[in-house]
């Protein structure tokens, strides 16, 4: 099982190395092999997640390590999906996608990866439904953030690349927003089942709502006020800061019904 996880890290590293070697020696194949390595890493991650699910007897989304592994899988999967539908105009972004995947998996290694029994509050089929939708949404929003960061730094003369990036930033934001919406809804249903209330203004719930409202306003500004290109990119940069606080900050800085998250 651990071999598959190590293999995914190696493949993501290989995707990054292939691109860097291609740039260094000016080879045209640099993006082709980077994308192939990303596919291999994504499949290896899927195998690892499936194997961990089998051995744990539950969805592997109950602690910070498991959620980060799933986040990387969703993030890389989102990139590969958008690349396919963009006519491969986003092949060059494979380098940056690989870099983010390597750094995130490296960060995940600092958390406890042992398989442990679920606490009573998490022993529900809603664990997979709720957490998977939220983390898949975060993966799409991470892709939007990556595109926005590059867009903000890119030379104005690179018209075609900026056009494909603008498409990616907005579309991945929409995907992330709707998945986050579904995650909040499923979380409310689970909360009612576990605690007898759909909404308790728990810090995690509150900041999830703040994040959702922020992205809703950002999408509204783009669609009705013409906040496109760099304006929308900046909104995505700040939006992901909210995502990170909701994901990490709330767990360690605030107490509430989701306080068990800080032990993960």
Query: Strand-residue fraction?
Result: under 5%
Compute the number of strand runs. 0
Radius of gyration: 19 Å
Largest sheet: none
Query: What's the quaternary structure here?
Result: single chain
| Helix and strand element order | HHHHHHHH
Number of helices: 8
In round numbers, the mean pLDDT is 87
Task: Note down, in words, how this protein is organized.
It contains eight helices and no strands. The chain is mainly α. The protein is globular.
What labels describe this entry?
8 helices, 264 residues, mainly alpha, 0% strand, globular
How are the secondary structure elements laid out?
Layout: H1 2-25, H2 30-56, H3 64-85, H4 94-108, H5 126-153, H6 159-195, H7 203-225, H8 229-253
Helix pairs in contact: 1-2, 1-4, 2-3, 2-4, 3-4, 3-5, 5-6, 5-8, 6-7, 6-8, 7-8
Summarize the structure.
This protein is an all-alpha fold and 264 residues long. The protein is 76% helix and 0% strand.
């Amino acid at each position: 099982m651990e071999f598959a996880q190590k293999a995914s890290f190696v493949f993501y590293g290989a995707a990054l190395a292939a691109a860097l070697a291609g740039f260094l020696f000016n080879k045209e194949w640099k993006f082709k092999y980077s994308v192939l390595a990303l596919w291999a890493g994504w499949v290896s991650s899927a195998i690892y997640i499936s194997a961990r699910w089998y051995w744990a007897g539950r969805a592997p989304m109950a602690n910070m390590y498991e959620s980060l592994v799933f986040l990387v899988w969703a993030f890389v999967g989102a990139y590969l999906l958008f690349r396919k539908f963009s006519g491969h105009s986003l092949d060059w972004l494979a380098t940056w996608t690989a870099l983010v995947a390597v750094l995130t998996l490296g960060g995940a290694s600092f958390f406890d990866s042992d398989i442990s029994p679920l606490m009573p509050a998490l022993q529900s089929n809603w664990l997979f439904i709720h957490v998977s939708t939220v983390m898949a949404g975060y993966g799409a929003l991470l892709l939007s953030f990556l595109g926005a960061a590059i867009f903000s730094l890119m030379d104005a003369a690179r018209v075609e690349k900026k056009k494909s990036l603008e498409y990616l930033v907005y579309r991945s934001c929409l995907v992330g927003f709707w998945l986050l919406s579904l995650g909040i809804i499923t979380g409310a249903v689970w909360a009612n089942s576990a605690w007898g209330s759909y909404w308790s203004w728990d810090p995690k719930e509150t900041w999830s709502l703040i994040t959702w409202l922020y992205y809703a306003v950002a999408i509204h500004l783009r669609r009705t006020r013409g906040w496109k290109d760099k304006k929308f990119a900046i909104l995505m940069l700040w939006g992901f800061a909210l995502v990170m606080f909701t994901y990490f900050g709330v767990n360690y800085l605030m107490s509430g019904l989701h306080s068990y998250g800080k032990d993960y």
